[in-house]
Write a structure and sequence with these properties.
The protein is 0% helix and 47% strand. The protein is mainly β and 97 residues long. The strands form 2 sheets. A 4-stranded antiparallel sheet has the order 4-5-6-7, with no helix packed on it. A 3-stranded antiparallel sheet has the order 1-2-3, with no helix packed on it. It starts with 34 loop residues before the first strand and ends with a strand.
Length: 97
Amino acid sequence: MSAHDGRDPFFPESTRPYEENKPANSTLDENSFAVKGFSMEHGHAMVIINNHTFAIGDEGDVLTTVGRVHLHLVDIRANVAVIEVNGSRRELPIALK
């Protein structure tokens, strides 16, 4: 997509729609994601990762220091949330006060 294909009517001077998506896999570290909350609703566990709520099997975009990253919540175990980002799995500790 290029500027010749059209422009954002709300932000006509923005170049964001035309920028290439860079894979963030190489710049993501273990501090890019944080579990900020945990809850049980009707027997289903949910976690808040970087201000976005996920249940097991959910996918979504979260904001990180390197930009927006798409992740998939694979599982919630005792004190650990298992996510998949760019084909690799990570375990995030659930350490809430």
